[in-house]
């Protein structure tokens, strides 16, 4: 009898899509545990205890296909008094055992005449795709300050990699930005810094770097660069336009999914048009356009896509659509809006379906392939099957057959699920 079950299991394993077999599925569960499930059968494969504070900061967790988990809640610049005084350790599960790694936070003060020169650093760590390294990205501003007022800053951005213990540093890339005068007395308002983006599966042979100014009323994106490794050497290529918010890329980093967020500030949510674009072969394909879809200029409600994932064959894209308010909340007019009963009713009807997952074809004129209300996207299990969260349960959805399969795996939030 046991042999029969083994034969059946082997046949089922062979019939499962190869892409699903190669995927990793982890779920964060209280009080502090990562559970790995088989993404084809949803059977439990293993459990790993992680720091309890990870439940409060799931976005600081990264997972790669080598089965490694990194919890790296990086301090932000400028450093607070708490950040300066407190210990900063990243937690790493290397696939076999847990360890902690020093983040490398730095805060140095020098007296320069009547001014103070403050140099800070708070590196961000990322897993590598192959599980052999950690990649580190850091802005290092040297700021001149007088009586608590910022005068100027010089920023050096650096990228390097180490082994899994944080040792054996190898330089990857660096940039030094020109000295910038802090015109408002706060450098973050007027001076650029750099932010790196790497795939959720870990740094392989590429990553992106974008220079931006945080600003008082909204971010200004200055330039973006693509870094590529070839035969152990990293080279940079400046992109024709800056990238605002990268949501996904193809495995080679050539095709990029970019979100253009609303420019709303000062208490307003809907002051421009949210879009999601697929950038490929020199073309911009708009797969989500807020104003074209919802026709909502008169009301202070913004519709946008916090997540978007290309299918493994890159022929389709799935997106979560959500909004800045809920159906049961009051809706005020936008800054320049005028009352419009038809528009208000249309917005209310749309809000009642959110969050929702929409699937579109990636072509010059995208076609809507599926619309799944009251769901949040996790990712693609295969070319045709999605993993979603619906009513706090993991659910699979077959895009071709329009069928769902509910699992018994309960999750607190979609940010607690990692499909790699």
Q: How would you describe this structure to a colleague?
A:
It is a single chain. This protein is mainly beta. The chain has a domain at 50-243. The protein has 6 helices and 31 strands. Strands 8, 9, 10, 11, 12, 13 and 14 form a 7-stranded antiparallel beta sheet that branches.
Topology (SSEs and partners):
Blueprint: H1 2-15, H2 18-22, E1 25-29, E2 33-37, E3 44-49, E4 61-63, E5 69-71, H3 81-85, E6 89-93, E7 98-102, E8 106-112, E9 115-121, E10 124-127, E11 134-146, E12 149-162, E13 170-176, E14 180-181, H4 187-190, E15 193-197, E16 206-213, E17 220-230, E18 233-238, E19 245-249, E20 256-260, E21 275-280, E22 283-289, H5 290-294, E23 303-310, E24 316-323, H6 341-351, E25 356-361, E26 368-373, E27 376-380, E28 385-390, E29 393-398, E30 403-410, E31 417-419
Antiparallel strand pairs: 1-2, 1-31, 2-3, 4-5, 5-6, 6-7, 8-9, 9-11, 10-11, 11-12, 12-13, 12-14, 15-16, 16-17, 17-18, 19-20, 20-21, 21-22, 23-24, 24-25, 25-26, 27-28, 28-29, 29-30
